Amino acid sequence: MKEFLEAYKGNILEVTFGKEGKTLTLGGENTLPFHSFEGNLPHPPLIALEIWDIPPQTWPEHLRACFGDVVSSPVAWAKKCLEVYRADLVCLYLASAGREEVDMAALASRVKELSDTLPVPLIVYGVGEKDADARALKEIARACAGNAVLLGPVVKENYEEVGRAALEYGHRLIVQSPLDINLAKELNIKLSKFFPRERMVIDPLSSALGYGMEYSFSVMERIKQVAVLYGDDTMKMPMIANVGRECWKTKEARGNAQQGLLWEAITTLTLFLAGANLAVMSSPDSMQLVRRMITQMS
To answer: Where in this chain does the record put each CO dehydrogenase/acetyl-CoA synthase delta subunit TIM barrel domain (predicted)?
Structure first.
């Protein structure tokens, strides 16, 4: 049997985030996803449940019903995700950051309160608007100094200003590029000129089932392969799949609760098979289904 096993040249860097006493680690593998028979997979894939800094008015009612009234309080919402649904961690979506009237200092203070309260590390995702995200993430980096928050996304238009703030205050970064391995590599190289690679997580963008998931799979798979099979140092960071929002804005997921659960679960499991080390999901029921499937596979 041994003669059929592969020995690969590369490995994925370990990225540890969270302050002392409540850290989690991504990556560290020297083989392909779930190939424990060929190498080491020291850290299993993690799943974060997404919470919003304001109530999610765009969610379908069958998704909002999983959380009830706690959606009006990020702290209570996070507590339910961790204590009731047993998520590995939570991801705060800064839905309010794109509003012109938002007070960024006050927003950062609320994020710090949440980060300080949690027994696990915090992920913070901006709204995907480069200028608004840069303002919000820089304020949050200062406010949460020492908490080693996983902040993102940083893109080619704002990586330098957000990256230097994250470097100064001890955070980790989610480095995002639009579904192109060459653009991902280019941004990683630029950022790593002043920011440590062992504090970077790649977000190659995630698409939902039926809406380009195959392309997301292909890009993630290629990133993982060039890192592990060929030892490309510029691509050795763990990957994150931000799945929830992509799935729950589809008409299929919004129109039917059971279909939505399966839509998100299938997308997540598929991107774990492509090489994601961390997934952000919205539905706790979908999360539990993915966990059962991973357990059976393992």
So the answer is: 14-252
For the whole model, what pTM was predicted? 0.96
Q: How far is CA 278 from CA 71, 214, 243, in A?
A: 23, 18, 10
φ, ψ (nearest 5 deg) of residue 224? -65, -40
- pLDDT-based confidence at residue 195 (cuts at 50, 70, 90): very high
Q: Which residue has the tokens 């800064």?
A: 94
Look at the alpha carbons of 184, 221, 8, 293 in this order and tell me if their dihedral is positive or negative.
positive
CATH code of 123's domain: 3.20.20.20
- The parent domain of residue 276 ranges over 2-297
50: amino acid identity, one letter:
E
Q: Indicate the helix (H) or strand (E) that contains 128.
A: none
Q: Are strands 122-125 and 89-93 parallel, antiparallel or unpaired?
A: parallel
Quick: pLDDT tens for 84-106. Answer: 999 999 999 999 998 888 999 99
Question: Which segments of 145-256 does DSSP mark as H helices, in order?
Answer: 159-169, 181-191, 213-228, 244-248, 251-255
Tokens of 64: 């909002």
Measured CA to CA, the distance from residue 271 to residue 275 in angstroms comes to 6
- The owner of tokens 């960071």 is 237
User: CA-CA distance, 272 to 139, in Å (whole number)?
Assistant: 32
What is the per-residue pLDDT for 2?
56
CA 179/CA 204 separation, integer angstroms? 5
Domains in the chain, number: 1
Residue-wise pLDDT for 248-291, tens only, equals: 999 999 999 999 999 999 999 999 999 999 999 999 999 999 99
The helix/strand/coil state of 281 is strand
Question: Is the Cα torsion angle 186, 131, 76, 244 positive or negative in sign?
Answer: negative
Compute the radius of gyration of the chain from its Cα atoms: 18
